[in-house]
Amino acid sequence: MPKPPLLSSPELERSSVVANNTMNRERGLTGVNSYARELGVDLLAHLAHRPAPSWLDLCSGEGRALREAASALPAEAVLTAVDLVGPLAPRSAPPALEEIVASVSSWTPPRTYDLITCVHGLHYIGDQLGLLTRAASWLTEDGLLAAHFDPESVRHADGSPAARPALSALRAAGYSYSPRHHRLTLRGGRPVQLPFHYLGADPTAGPNYTGQPAIASYYTAS
Ligand SMILES: C[S@@+](CC[C@H](N)C(=O)[O-])C[C@H]1O[C@@H](n2cnc3c(N)ncnc32)[C@H](O)[C@@H]1O
Q1: Distance (Å) from CA 84 to ligand 1 centroid
Q2: How many domains does the chain have?
Q3: pLDDT tens column, 171-208
Q4: Does residue 41 lie in a domain region?
Q5: CA distance 41 to 55
Q6: What's the gap between Cα 156 and its chain centre?
Q7: In a domain, 1, yes or no
């Protein structure tokens, strides 16, 4: 299989697939167009009964889910939204919410979180496996990571599919994957090492299971 030119993360972030303002960035906490529906998890129930619940949303778009959560959580809650572009319609944020404009490929939080979400964000990240590895270490002991993941977007250096070894390695590290909904979850923070070395990304991979153009991530075994 011919290998396309692979882009670094900064190059990828300037590509039209990632800088695509027709993406659905408006999901709220509950309802038809929501995190609860996409992830199949009652996120507030996961955060309930914690004195200072913390939620990190990676690739947060407009940040609507966190904004809605802020009014249902105690004042001590810590809500962090990270997005490459940030909200396109800036509004004042509730006190518990910190909105960070940065690439999740290089950003690192200074703390751990009870909940980490990435709703249809990994489709635009070059080193998806690297981000999943780093996010595992950002979870609290009983924290939950929930993300959409398309194993078909992981490729070997020659362009052949690496979905099976990627999923095997993730499962061996403790992640659960539901192919029906493309949901990846991890319960409990831990150090993770996956046997992959990131090579670069192909933004011309075409639409993924969502029907939207997405990137393919290339790796060699390490
Ligand atoms: C399909 S939208 C989903 C937004 C939000 N999670 C939602 O469901 O409403 C994907 C988001 O990923 C963001 N994104 C893409 N690449 C990123 C990167 N390297 N770092 C942070 N955010 C990124 C985009 O700016 C966009 O807001």
Answers
A1: 7
A2: 1
A3: 999 999 999 999 999 999 999 999 999 999 999 999 99
A4: yes
A5: 14
A6: 21
A7: no
Contact 149, 186 (CB under 8 A): no
| pLDDT tens per residue across span 34-53 | 999 999 999 999 999 999 99
CATH number where 147 lies: 3.40.50.150
168 occurs within a structural domain = yes
- Which of the listed residues 8, 108, 120, 124 should we mutate to test ligand 1's pocket, taking the one with most ligand atoms within 8 A of CB? 124
Query: Where in the sequence is the domain holding 68, given as residue range(s)?
Result: 9-17+27-221
The pTM assigned to this predicted structure is 0.97
Q: Which residue's CA is minimally distant from atom 18 of ligand 1?
A: 103
Show the tokens assigned to 204.
């011309």
Contact between residue 52 and residue 132 where contact means Cβ atoms under 8 Å apart? no
Tell me if 139 CB under 6 Å of ligand 1: no
